[in-house]
Amino acid sequence: MDKCEAELKNLDRDALEAEVVRLRSTLAGIDAADASGELALHAFDASPVMPTSRDAQARKAARQRAIFESDIDFAIILSDPAGVITDWNAGATYVMGWTAEEACGQSSAFFFTPADRANGWVEREMHQALQNGRASDERWHLRKDGRQFWASGDTTPLYGDDNLHLGFMKIVRDRTREHLADQAIEETKERYRLAAKATNDAIWDWDLAGNHVLWNEALEEAYGYPVASTETSGDWWMAQIHPDDRARVSASIHAVIDGKGSDWTDGYRFRRADGTYAEVLDRGHVIRNAKGRAVRMIGAMLDLTTMRSAETALRESEERFRTILETIESAFAIVQVKFDADDVPVDYQFVEVNPAFERQTGVDLRGKWVTEFAPNLEKFWFEVYGHVAKTGEPANFENYAEAFQRWFDVRAVRVGAPEERRIGIFFNDVTERRNAEDRLRVSERIARENIERVQLALAAGAIIGTWHWDMQADLFSVDEAFTTAFGLDPALAEQRLSLEQVVVNVHPDDRDELTRKINEVADRGGAFAHQYRVRRADGKYYWIEANGRVDHAADGTPQNFPGVLIDVEERRAVEAERDRAISALRTLNETLEQRVVERTDELMQAEEKLRQSQKMEAVGQLTGGLAHDFNNLLAGISGSLEMMGIRIAQGRLNDIDKYMTAAQGAAKRAAALTHRLLAFSRRQTLDPQPIDVNRLMTGMTELIQRTVGPSIVLETVGAPDVWVALADASQLENALLNLCINARDAMADGGRITIETANRCMDRGAARTHDLPEGQYLSLSVTDTGSGMTPEVIAKAFDPFFTTKPIGQGTGLGLSMIYGFAKQSGGQVRIQSGVGQGTTVCIYLPRYHGEPIEDRSEVDSKSPLPLETGETILIVDDESTVRMLLSDVLSELGYTVLEAADSVAGLKILRSNVHLDLLISDVGLPGGMNGRQMADAGHEIRPSLKTLFITGYAEKAAIGNGQLGPGMQVLTKPFAVDILVARVQDLMKS
Known about the structure:
The chain is an alpha+beta fold and 990 residues long.
């Protein structure tokens, strides 16, 4: 090692920084020798350099180059202002592995980690160096072989004449060993701190030079001395040792300190803070310096008094334990686990059992092997008990034992020596509880259904008003619908009313009972429901039902009473009519049987009217939204068609295209609305196929990026070895695009959208949380950094026509369509969001065990394939306009077309001798058979006949629960002519 190399090797960080300042003005100025062998040196420092002779300049440049290349422990990299490497010393090759030829010309970012490159760390470092004159960092870098090393780096800008920025110099030193050593030291300190905190022993750390002792918190817990106020000298410690033991302990501990040993152990009596003495066993370890001198001693003081008391208590406890085992209701057994030659558990014997064991299991198994009683016992029990016996890891679980036909809650622990392979088992028969839980799950399902019905009632207008009563202040907050229902001035909805103001219009005959009911629920709290009559603005009395709940404070004082009003006028009238009919039927039961039948029929009709009324109220909200959207679309279609008729009559054909485009656009939007509603109702026609979701996501990336715009950063994260999903690819694409558009709308000022796929295994708990069957699923999630949602918005997000967007900027069907599509596909959708924290919407689709299908490219409808023969097509549809359109389109392509208006006529042709190449049939047909049933009947005669189903609405049963047979495809109405032609030609070719 020469002098320069030795000097650099011994530099610390500050000295190295000073050397960087001295060298930066010259290192980047070394140029290649010119034709005469002289060196041209360019000064990079802003200050002028005094002219020297060319020989002196050459010697200086050579010396600088020698410094640049001298020390292989320092990587020195020169780059231009853009960060492109221009020079690379031997130290850089030694530290990172790349040669100068490999490194020069690359960006300085190439030896940074991918995470730092993605976060723009290199650019940030150069910017900081320009601003502050230097940039220092310590972080992970890459070597050529892909390994990482911890580097201490400094980047400084280089300047030439006239303060011209010429580039950067970065000096890097490999400090991996020091970094890992520092981490190990910190981890050791943390483990020591945690151990000292967790143990019950009094831990002491004695600084022998300063005679200073540090204690852990156990000093106070075990002996009563507060650590914060206790004297910390070694003399105080010795002063607490019993006088009869003090000299002996002092001699023994100093014999170890002054000698060459390291471990010390002794027992003595230690005075507690209350003056009593504890018998302790003290152990210590001496730490010596390089010269062998003791500088520190660390130890732990164990209270033997507690241990000896514990031994006595243990004997008493064992007796109590045996008594408890004989009397407790929990079953207990000690089990000897048997292993085969491969150390696999194959049987277990009940060595000892308590009386409750026989009561719980119904059999006496003491001394018996379990396979004697239950030769077909589930393998699960052997595996769990064998694992506990071998590893000592306790197990706590619930499982069903078929041999006992009961559920057991089991706690298993190892007992005795490990080689004995024995375990202790506590268990309880929880069959009744499990049955109760099953009943509870059924009850919860019914409750969820009830909640859905309530939500439907809210949306449909069955609830006619709401209130919130502050019972302590006697102030009502009501909505305008409430004032209307109570016959009050609507302006009062903006005020807070008293109970007296609210009940002023209650029927006099109902007021006392209402007051009694209110007082009753105020005393007990909980749910409230009561029916009474209220006079409205027209002077008439109407029956209403008030439903609410009283919440109590901690002291039992009634606080809040929120609730809703339900219009029961019609129901009361129907019930009254029903009661009168029942009374009359009972009176005439013996003599007028025929009249009873007639009145019963009238009653059933009245009840049917009631149910119909309730159903119509429930769908009111939905039909309102449909009417609004469809009226707009029909106005565009009918208006455009009318204008086309006028222009054709006038001979003005130039405007026809404009109105035709408008009508077609409105029709397509109407079709999209219908598809979204069918998706929400889970009745859309799907074509589920095995698909690679990663490939689908990648294929849509460009389209999504164009859709969300340049202010949104789009990131896709595809899971490796992602499972194949079974779903309709086009519907999944629509769902993904809709989610990305929603994410864009939630980020008005730009942000990031992350699309991610993952494999998910749903066990029983996870499946119950996600409302899915147990199994394997493929998840597709879209995450944004937008404004997020409140819990109230999340609860309504999937409702049809619910939207938080301004009027005209959203239909409220996007998420409901995605929800319906996922549920119909056998999956689920879940939302995770918080206000200001962004939103994640995750679609779960069932895993398909097989390979994904290849993408099927549609045949170009503008260039129909030439027909080699005049194929014959049978069209079956009850709509004459559809048959006409299909016949015209296919006839113009050269096909021979036969038509049938119902399933009877269609089946007659299928059973005839007429040659047929393709069947096109609606799914919903009159004539007693649907399209699928007719096609299946036809296939018995023509097994090779290809079929194209066309449908606007299809029950699952009509298309085989979404599974089509070979040579079958489905096309959803309305459809474009070119799509129809492509499907027909695709089937003809297959």
